Amino acid sequence: MSPPPRMPPSALVPASADEVEQQFYEALQRGDLERLMACWLEEDGISCVHPGGPRIQGFAEVRSAFEAIFAHGSIDIQVQETRRWQADTSAVHSVLERVDVSTDDGPRSAWVMATNVYVLTEHGWRLLCHHASPGTPASTGGAGPSGSALGGPAAGSVLH
User: Fold this and answer.
1) Which has the closest alpha carbon to 128: 5, 6, 20?
2) Type and span of the H or E element at 30
């Protein structure tokens, strides 16, 4: 007999897609794997793409990927802009992220364009898909300085 589905901690039951997104980015900033995974829909159909990386599918695989990233510490990430679309039980956010990274040339800002897809469940809003790609501030109309510290497929292992 299978154990009953795990109930997410009540403190992490977001009432809106905006709330789950805030919890997701706070968890990235803190390197908090449990809080991060509480944001996700606990199903095999979830997917995640880190900048320059392959599609990761399934709850256990997504967890393993973030566990490997957090082994190097938290992520210095800030949401710079969000564009939202929402229906009754789903929401899509197009997010411009700024990730501050240390390079051989000193600190740099990497720009990432992410699409986050949320669904409303019996446990509140949950993240279904996070797809992140290298970007620039110009991708959304020029907010902030130009340029990116992202460089090829290895960038996904440094970022998210």
Assistant:
1) 20
2) helix 17-30
> 11: helix, coil or strand?
helix
What does 42-99 look like in DSSP terms, one character per residue? -STT-EEE-TT--EEESHHHHHHHHHHHHTT----EEEEEEEEEE-SSEEEEEEEEEE
pLDDT, tens digit, 9 for 90 and up, residues 47-77: 999 999 999 999 999 999 999 999 999 999 9
CATH class of 13-137: alpha beta
* pTM for the predicted model, two decimal places: 0.80
Sequence-distant (6+) residues with CB within 8 A of 95 are 21, 79, 81, 82, 83, 113, 114, 115, 116
Residue 7, helix vs strand vs coil: coil
Contacts of 54 by beta carbon, 8 Å cutoff, 6+ apart = none
- Domain positions in the chain are 13-137
Beta-bridged to residue 101, according to DSSP, are 108
pLDDT tens across 85-114, in order?
A: 999 999 999 999 999 988 889 888 999 999
